[in-house]
Amino acid sequence: MKSDIILAGVGGQGILSIATALGEAALADNLLIKQAETHGMSQRGGAVYSHMRISDRPISSDLIPGGAADLILSVEPMESLRYLPYLSETGYLVTNITPFVNIPNYPDIEKVMEEIRKLPRFIAIDADAIAKEVGSSRASNMVMLGAASPFIDIEFSKIEAGIRTIFGRKGEEVVNLNLEALRRGRQFAEENR
Amino acid sequence: MQKHLFLGVEAIGQGAIDGGMSGVYSYPGTPSTEITEFIQENPLAEERNIHRTWTANEKTALETALGMSYAGKRAMSCMKHVGLNVAADVFVNAAMTGVNGGLIVTVADDPSMHSSQNEQDSRFYGKFAMVPVLEPSSQQEAYDMARDGFALSEQTKVPVMLRITTRLAHSRAGVARKEVLPENQLSLPADPRQFILLPAIARRKYKGLLESQNLFLKLSEESIYNRYEEGAEKSLGIIACGIAYNYLMEHYPNGTCPYPVVKISQYPLPENYINRLDQECDEILVLEEGAPMVEEMLKGFFAKGTPIKGRLDGTLPRDGELNPDLIAKALGKQMFSGYAIPEVVANRPPALCMGCGHQDAYVAMNEVLADYSKGRVFSDIGCYTLGALPPYETIFSCVDMGASITMAKGAADAGLIPAVAMIGDSTFAHSGITGLLDAVNEKSSITVVISDNESISMTGGQDSSAFGKIESICIGLGVDPAHIHTIVPLKKNHEEMVRLFREEFAYNGVSVIIPRRECIQRASSRKRNKK
Questions:
Q1: Per-residue pLDDT averaged across B64-88, rounded?
Q2: Is residue B194 pLDDT above 70, yes or no?
Q3: Per the structure, how many domains does chain B have?
């Protein structure tokens, strides 16, 4: 088993919460992990990414080689395209469609979506809308993780357990809300893949 | 055994605690900051009352760590690569005094300059000071080296450098902890003159350091971190330093490279393995993160020996960090190169946060500067350096910690009057104070803007050592109190700020304006933590 995942977003969007949930799930599955993060200057509203590698065999490099990622998981549509050189020939791109506009020259969103739709395998999901339906816009990252989960070789129940571990101390209500967000994301991906 | 999912920096923090360290002394700097933060929040560090508060700068940090070593205890000092420039005086001389308690100098380099103004390679400093250097290839090695590095320092009687780079610092992997060692007892050096570098003593100490080089070499040749891996294909031999070893092995998933490989994670260079590689192989490829230090050492000036390939002959790029793709190319491997980035993708550079006080200061400053010719504002290292970018484009320099004040003074000396320095509160405490003293002594026509957000913000909101002391420091240095002004940088105070800047830019002498409002990131995390 091996999943090489690029997580992408904008500094402050909290992509590391997705990494933490996945990391917990992988640990519970007795898998090995390497995960390179972006710290420092870019965290101030710049483009941020994380290389997450999960495998049942020892992992050498902390960075995913170009053209080798099984999955790009982006919480922002333009950011999903920035890492295309990493995507493998059989890889999936899973992205949120809500743009995060903090630069004056943000492109026409239709043009961004056009580029996403050119890819052979993608899921474009309105995670913010689904998160609101579930009850909290802050759960959109868990919607995204759910939407990516069919393409990650980890049992879904282990990902659910990961979420219970992370949100456990915030109480049952928060746990259930995030689990619902996860399931709704997964449901969308399975219906639209 | 249960493994901990540690960032490289966290592995070092845990390793140092488990190695019996009694104090960590550091100034924040990406990518080294989280080592000290990890120790600050660690329960065992708290239980043992390990010293773990921030220092004013890297020089004071390493000097204090050396003092703890003098007293017989184990200490670590952590900094980013350019921080070692600040601490270089004590670093090089600490190799001369040697240590009593084990001393590790942990330096985090930033090749590709993700958050830095250059990509200097700290291994040169290790070689320059002639001390052993450890360079982990994995988070586990980072833990082991931090834990066992104190004993190595005590055995070799000199400080040991632990050198990491950004990728290892900020990447997570499983780490197995080992037995927690006790702290050292207080004990003074056996030789009361060990730390007195008077010329007559220093000459003797220097001979001792030179003689120790044989021991350091022997330890490298026998180190568990260095090894020779057999390979049947002798057309090429590979030297892989630090994390470059992982990028190499990425291309051999079954764990065996067809070429002989020398893995290096401890310096000086293990000559035994390198000589053997030279004898067995037609060519040598050197993979190292940072500068081509090893490559230069091996490449003969007249290029008569075994051909050496690496960053100097174009096999690898001369600058920037390594990655698996660059090494695949160097090995002649063809790989699927992914999809191209569509043209529609725009750059998204970092920017000042919405509501940040530096913004208000820049807006007011720009209004007044419009009356003068361009190119008068010298700045410094911190979030406010982003004032170089649109929409502000206010500043014209960012060189090293504290240089805003001294460069403004030099420009004023040359006749550029007024000249303005824009510096943050923590950078002022770090290295701005002495420069301000120079300016006061010569009554230079400069205005120093100390944009005070009451924290070290770029690195994540650590405590600034000048907190609550900036006005008294300036008065103490001799700045006329009538020309020290404090204001809250908010839109409603814009006119008042403009008036202050206008008056003080026109004043023929040293003035200090302190726009003061807490960093909004720090304020919001403080409120979150209160909940």
A1: 98
A2: yes
A3: 3
